[in-house]
Specification:
Length: 428
């Protein structure tokens, strides 16, 4: 960098040894050094003028707390002192400009946004430029103005580095906190601090929550998480996400129907309303190839552990249903989960399918059982029960109304068959 404030008629500076000079000012022209000393003696006045100018032109500056205004004035004074050294040692320009922000408390970065920092630098430079004629005199005025402009550029870059580092630290902290919240929900370890931790991440307590589980794409976890958040913002959804081994777990919040029926009537049907399906469709591009499972809707984040448990249990067994749709609800995989030993799925099938059929009356339960035993043949069922086929049809429709499963549908018939077997075993 060209040495600031050179004398136009001065001879080229002599070579300097690599060791630091005992007196850094010795290489500065005496006339230039006199200007630098005047700036140094006027540093307090310049800082006060700059802060006064900030009060005048920046509407957000005066309402700040007195402590933050004092911190800003401290930074301005440090900036002027650094400018003095910058004029004497231009070869250390980057180091000197970076030192300015080291006097500022860490919380000042949160109190002053980067946009406001740029405004502060602009106003401070304008205030200092107004004093340049009195400080430099006509011989050095233009060159001092040019040096102030170059120094302000260095300060702006140094400030950008400070804010970028703070953003990286904040992003890393947010990522760790988000992973912790998702992990607590997945493990079912719901703590009292969970809502406040989620709120620190911007979670706004939506009216309903569900957990979605699928394969992780071949990207770094950071890229995957960023894509989920981008898709969630685009769809107007609240999302918390984490990568667990090779699975992408997303907690999605929105205006869904919480507390809906658990009956596994149809994949994506009862228990998974249109609003939730639309939300899942918006997030699907973030998942890798393979099944994507939707957990049941929960009322809030504190009760989302049951949705996570169901979604993860369903993801473990979804390969047993090769024709499963994408996405598929955890309720639609209740028979596979029950066969794999999921006690919650067994209980759901007994309570939501078998019990309503039994309470609807012995004829319905017997008719459905015979229909399943005889391979879904109306005629064989009618002969076995000494009924007319139309009577069998009527009872099957009544059974579907009672338990939410249609015995004439292949997939729902399988679910119904497993539910009846579990119900019979439970009553033995």
């Amino acid at each position: 960098m060209t040495r600031p404030l050179p004398d136009a008629d001065a001879a080229p500076p002599p070579a300097v040894d690599s060791a630091p000079a005992a007196n850094p000012a010795a290489t500065v022209d005496p006339a230039v050094e006199d200007v630098i000393r005047r700036i140094e003696r006027s540093s307090g006045m310049l800082a006060s003028r700059a802060v006064a100018r900030m009060h005048e032109v920046l509407p957000w500056f005066t309402p700040m707390s007195a402590r933050h205004r004092a911190d800003i004035q401290l930074v301005v004074q440090a900036g002027i002192s650094s400018f003095v050294e910058w004029c004497r040692r231009p070869q250390h320009a980057r180091e000197l400009s970076g030192d300015v922000f080291r006097v500022a408390p860490r919380d000042l970065v949160r109190a002053v946004t980067f946009r406001r920092l740029v405004e502060l630098v602009r106003v401070a430079v304008e205030a200092i430029e107004a004093e340049v004629p009195a400080l430099a005199g006509p011989d050095h005025e233009q060159r001092l103005l040019a040096d102030v402009l170059r120094y302000s550029r260095d300060i702006a870059f140094a400030g950008a580095v400070v804010y970028a580092r703070a953003a990286e630290e904040r992003g890393a902290w947010d990522a760790r906190l988000e992973a912790l919240v998702v992990d607590h929900v997945v493990r079912g370890e719901v703590e009292r601090a969970l809502p406040s931790r989620a709120a620190a991440l911007g979670w706004r307590n939506p009216p309903a929550v569900a957990v979605i589980v699928g394969d992780t794409p071949d990207h770094s976890p950071e890229v995957v998480v960023d894509q989920v958040h981008r898709l969630g913002r685009g769809a107007g959804l609240e999302v918390l996400t984490g990568v667990h081994h090779e699975r992408l777990v997303v907690i999605v919040g929105g205006d869904f129907v919480a507390g809906s029926a658990r009956r596994p009537a149809r994949p994506g049907g009862v228990g998974c309303g249109r609003a939730l399906l639309d939300a899942v469709d918006a997030l699907l591009p973030a998942y890798g190839p393979g099944p994507v499972v939707i957990g049941p809707v929960a009322a809030d984040l504190a009760t989302a552990a049951s949705s996570a448990h169901a979604a993860l249990a369903a993801a473990d067994v979804v390969t047993a249903w090769p024709a499963a749709p994408r996405p598929v609800t955890a309720q639609a995989l209740l028979p596979e989960r029950a066969l794999a030993g999921d006690t919650g799925a067994r209980r759901a099938l007994i309570e939501d399918v078998y019990t309503p059929l039994r309470e609807a009356g012995a004829p319905l339960l017997a008719t459905v059982g015979a229909y399943l035993d005889f391979g879904a043949s109306l005629e064989a069922t009618a002969r076995a029960l000494y009924l007319h086929p139309n009577t069998v049809r009527y009872r099957l429709r009544k059974a579907a109304d009672a338990c939410g499963l249609d015995p004439t549908d292949h997939r729902e018939r399988f679910t119904l068959h497993v539910a009846l077997i579990l119900g019979r075993l439970a009553t033995v």
